[in-house]
Amino acid sequence: MNHSRYGNNGNPEAIYPIYTEATECHDCYKCVRQCPVKAIRIENGVASVLSNRCIACGHCVQVCPSRAKRVRNDLSRAVDLLAGESRVYVSLAPSWRGLFPEWSASSLVTALKTLGVTEVSETALGAQEVSAAVAEQISQEEKGLFISSACPAVVDYIRRYHPWTANRIVSLASPALTHCAMLRKLFGEDIRVIFIGPCVAKKNEADRHPELLDCALTFEELRILLDDQNLVPSKFAGSQEHFIPETAAEGAIYPIEGGMLETIRRCDVDSKVLLQSISGIPLLAESLDHLREMRSERPIFLEALACPGGCINGPFATRASHLAATTGILEQANYREREKRSPVVRVEMEYEPLRVEEEVPDEASVRKALLSLGKTSPADELNCSGCGYESCREFAKALVRGDAEPEQCVSHMRRVATRKANALLRCIPAGIAIVDSNLLIVESNEAFSRLFGEEIIQLYQDVPGLEGADITTLLPCGPLFEAALRQGEDIRREHYPVGDQLLDLTIFTIDPGKTIGVVVQDVTETELGREQIAERADEVISRNIAIVQEIASRLGEHMADTEILLDSISRGYRKKK
Hints:
The protein has helices at residues 30-34, 59-63, 75-83, 96-99, 105-114, 124-138, 152-161, 175-187, 201-208, 219-228, 259-266, 281-293, 322-332, 363-372, 392-401, 410-427, 446-449, 454-462, 478-487, 524-576, and strands spanning 18-20, 40-43, 46-49, 69-71, 88-92, 119-122, 144-147, 192-197, 215-218, 274-279, 299-305, 431-436, 441-444, 491-498, 501-511, 515-522. With 577 residues, it is α/β, with parallel strands linked by helices. It has a five-stranded antiparallel beta sheet, with helices on both faces. A four-stranded parallel beta sheet has the order 6-5-8-9, with helices on both faces. A hairpin with a 2-residue loop joins strand 2 (40-43) and strand 3. The longest helix is centred in the last third of the chain and has 53 residues, at 524-576. Residues 9-14 have low confidence and may be disordered.
């Protein structure tokens, strides 16, 4: 295999599963707006991921329009494992059934074995073990809230942002880690395990639990591996290969919202237990706040998933529709009859709170930050969310923490741009006006008003910028303006006569067909000065020519007299001789 294709491009941030390719980031702030925990810092216009606050849900990767948000490439690690001496087993996420309907189980197993994998097993087997353990545990409880540990992004979210709920997560490893433990129990502790699925957060699980999971790949990385070896699983349709140790039963529906609850029901959970399902971090956040206050006399089990609709909508799920993927999984599920059963493999795991250590800005600092944005009163706080934060105050807090930059505020930048534009208009000595499609003035500088006398100067003082005035009443050259609006091309006229004035005009397009600008310079005095200089020059030249002519005439007379004298002397000299 070609190892060079599987690197991380030397990106120093690539240690964490999600990072930013700085050269591709175009300060759109979409990741800030979409991140459910605001684990993004803007610095010099680049949005970087804050790993101590990120839950690796992968949503920023999905929404980034320029593909600047990247997921760590672990193919090099996987290739090294396949090239090593240890046996390599694949734990395949159950969502593959709905996302790759063109592949059969036997063909996919054959393709993976062709890559060097020893055997392939379904993560759904681990899911079935977790459901059996959950059903057994909560059936023994009288009341209380219990939250699933199946989704690593949800687990990280609760531990960091709802730490009071961390002890309500069932003390069981996720289905993926449970499945890894099952494989090692069946085939030896010396095996290597690679997980493949649609999830980014599984890479965190692999990093934190290398004793169980050696490497986690996304479905996209799987495609790269297969393409690199020109392997098309559908070509192995006649293969007799199969999953080991067996094909999963109801655990295959785990990737669908409510799938875990159905598997728990199949384990004949006690009827007193209330089973609830929530998907999507925003809805989960809202629900946890309500559950904190809620009192129930029955056990409540909450299946919590970070991706809306379940794992089949994970950040690296294929483009198959939600309905098609769900249908594909349900059609292939092999349900068992309800029965109480104990798990064969049970991996205990405690989930301690992981508080996010960050500065809590005081009110004075927040107010100072708001003032720096030109927000002097609550009425100025538009809460438009253009910066990526829900409110101006939240944005101000991010500024104080150093997670944001003033340039993110649209209204602030508009004011800055307006001030700069006004400063330029004031300082430029030439007259400048901006005109709309109706030839009405939108803005002009004072130098423009001074071109047309005291009355217009006074009007400029009364109506700043002469806004709304018809420019053709000042500059009777409507056809030029209309041509500029129609053609979208710059027009220049020198020494254009307007009354007693000579004007240099430059008309340029700002917004084609809608807005144009005109720069006007009065060159009347300059041109008159040039004419006077030319007239005086003509007079001087004429006088000089007359003098030269007189000199030449007199020189001619002197030359004639000299010639006569010399001729007379010459004749007298010859006679004497």
